[in-house]
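Subject: for your reference before the review

Hello V.,

The reviewers asked for a structural picture of the protein, and I figured it would be easier to keep everything in one thread rather than splitting it across files. Below is the amino acid sequence we used in the manuscript, unchanged from the supplementary table.
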Amino acid sequence: GTEYWLKQDFSALSTLKLASENQLAVNKEFSPKSIASTIEHSLNITIADIANKYKTSVATVLLSCFTILLWRLTKQPQTIVGVTYDCRNYEGLESALGLFAKHLPLVCELKNHLKFSEVLHQIHELTGKNADWQEYFTLEDTALSFLPFCFEFEHRESKYCAGELAFSIDKQYAYIDRFKVKLCCWSQNDRLGFDLQYDTCLFETDAIEHLVGRFQSLLISVASNPQAVIGNLNILSDRERQQLLVEFNNTQTSYPCDKCIPELFTAQAEQTPDNIALICGNQTLTYRELNAQAN
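And here is what came back from the structure prediction:
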């Protein structure tokens, strides 16, 4: 069991970072927060169909999507996700009190040409192997104090009973280890959703909202074609697509109708005389120099 973990390559852990991460706050005190989101019913059904088709679980489909998203955003060939295991695989531990759960590193080698279905199969195999040797893993094997990106999936009952008492849980969370970003997915009856937890010392809320949108977009892209190459899957949120296709291309500028181009150029030279106006090879001219030559 110990040999299984010693053979794993955890070197990528030190370089796995998101562009929106505040590098100066890495050593600050852990301050977690979360953003909740639900998955549309039609998309939920499609995800379940994909899981059945490829003989895996909904949890593995969601974990595969999260792993691909991290791979695309970190731009690293190796992606490592800390997956939550309950570590109660021995008889008698199911009902034992106390916290046994821990994050186990799932090490994936991803490439642009791989299909989503191939990544899904790879992650299905890896989660099974990790489960077989879960009790042998310790964080010391990674040379880090925590795993930066984590994933968890749980089934929530709509009602719990204790004797004659019946109750339901409105919201729950538990932080068993520190992390940078953790995707906590859940299912309840025919509903599916997730909480994206993050360290507020490292990320602004706006950056995590972008991440939520990207994960939703990736789920939709996978649902439409699980045989797609992972490098071609869409990860742009509706908000980002609007910015790229519409807002950033809206370059129309109003100019005075009563002035010609030489007059407009002279006015610009007066406003920003030392700004670069012309670049040709290794030569540059400021507005002042170009205006002087023109006159």
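For the response letter, the relevant points are probably these. Residues 256 and 264 are 9 Å apart (CA to CA). The mean pLDDT is 85.

Happy to draft the paragraph if you're swamped.

O.
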